[in-house]
Amino acid sequence: MSDVAKTMWDFVYAYDAAYDRAARVCGLSASQACLLKAVSDGPSTMGQLATDLLCDASNVTQLVNRLETKGLVTRRVGHLDRRSKTVHITSAGAMLHREVTEAFSFPHEALGCLTPRQQETLADLLSVISGGSDRDMTRPVQA
User: DSSP 3-state assignment of 88?
Assistant: First the structure.
């Protein structure tokens, strides 16, 4: 593994660990916090959540069950397709999502070590290697 690849791996690991800690401080798992984030801008179907969170629909069902028990989300029958369920964040869920976001200080701390020019360069480089918004990051890159 190259030095660059190892450094990226270490960064991703540190980022994920910091997000997990922020979620745990707020009484959630990282997966639960991710689901709250996914519905924080509006309701989503269970199927779309599975796609967005890159997991099986049965995992989403378990996550929604736990969050619904805590009063953080509600599940409603779909408007267009009564067979589907949409997940809506509650006011308590929105408040807890904000707490997780505030507790997740890692990006601000990491970027705080860089000058504004370095931050711009990093943003440009990350955009290049992630393919910008045009590439599906769930699919492997063809060499």
Answer: strand
Residue 143 has pLDDT above 80, yes or no: no
Kindly state the tokens that stand for 70.
Answer: 């805590």
12-36 pLDDT tens trace = 999 999 999 999 999 999 999 999 9
**Strand, coil or helix: 13:** helix
119-to-21, 88, 108 alpha-carbon distances in Å: 25, 35, 11
Calculate the alpha carbon distances from 54 to 3, 45, 83, 106, 137 in Å: 28, 14, 22, 23, 11
Fold of 3-106: Arc Repressor Mutant, subunit A (1.10.10)
Beta-strand (E) ranges in the chain? 44-45, 73-77, 85-89
**Domain segments of the chain as ranges:** 3-106
Core vs surface per residue 85-122: b (16+ CB within 10 A) or e: bbbebbeebeebbebbeebbebeeeeeeeeeeeeeeee
Query: Residue 64: CB partners within 8 Å, gap ≥ 6?
Result: 35, 46, 49, 73, 75, 87
